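ZP: hey, is the adenosine-5'-triphosphate complex queued? I don't see it on the tracker
AM: it wasn't, my bad. submitting now with these inputs:
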Amino acid sequence: MAEPQTDLALRGDNIVKRFDAVTALDGVSLTLGQGEILGILGDNGAGKSTLVKILTGFYQQTEGKLYVHGEETLLRSVDHARSLGIECVYQDLALANSLSIYHNMFLNREIVRRGPLRLVDHKSMRERAAQLLDDIGVHVPSVDLPVERLSGGQRQAIAVARAVNSNARVLLLDEPLAAMGAREAALIIDLIMRLKENGRLSIIMIMHNYAQTLDIANRIMLMQRGRVTYQQRSANTSVTELMEIVRREYQAMRATTAH
Ligand SMILES: Nc1ncnc2c1ncn2[C@@H]1O[C@H](COP(=O)(O)OP(=O)(O)OP(=O)(O)O)[C@@H](O)[C@H]1O
Ligand SMILES: [Mg+2]
């Protein structure tokens, strides 16, 4: 019998996902070690978001097995995944823009005062929110500001901070740097680097920029047309090598469609 791999935060074996006639994932296997950062790269439509949505319980796989902290698990819903410590920060973030920063950070898990009235403890939430943002190096003028007054990068940082605050053990980030300027991207990269140093979280992030991914991730996985076509430790590959692999694949695809 195989040893249980409890040192793995997540493992997927031969994951297949079909949407009617479309096969979005065609037998994807992956592992995510404790405290590891895995970067997923690949073309539009390669299946990256679909994979992350299966790992976060949003979709269920058509075939294949998932293991969470070594135990075989069928993730039934996003809430189910969350209860197992898996949090996702989607590209559209799902923050309540008109609410304050601190409200957003405690949305659906407000701190309440002891006593029969169970009043919401705004003072504690403000203090905790400010402390949390300070801890991860995000500087905002006040946690009372509505989220809509923040930049895209700050908002993304709030969403990540909220996920971190939720006792998540696995964090899934779908294109955290998409549509961001250099300064905002630097803020998120800095935040992810701090989490990496901390080592408590295991992270999967979908990225488009090869150089940034190699900088941040311990390991990268390249997806093409629903399959993993290459994976390697970041230290053992390069932007040039990755570009060459993608170029070769593209040429092979053109050659087959030309006939
Ligand atoms: N709900 C759905 N119904 C039908 N087809 C879908 C659905 N979601 C994704 N697909 C298809 O699955 C394939 C993979 O899509 P996915 O969104 O996972 O790609 P991606 O790698 O995240 O691409 P991008 O880089 O553009 O975000 C695509 O062909 C897409 O059209
Ligand atoms: Mg996507």
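AM: back. The radius of gyration is 20 Å.
ZP: great, adding it to the tracker
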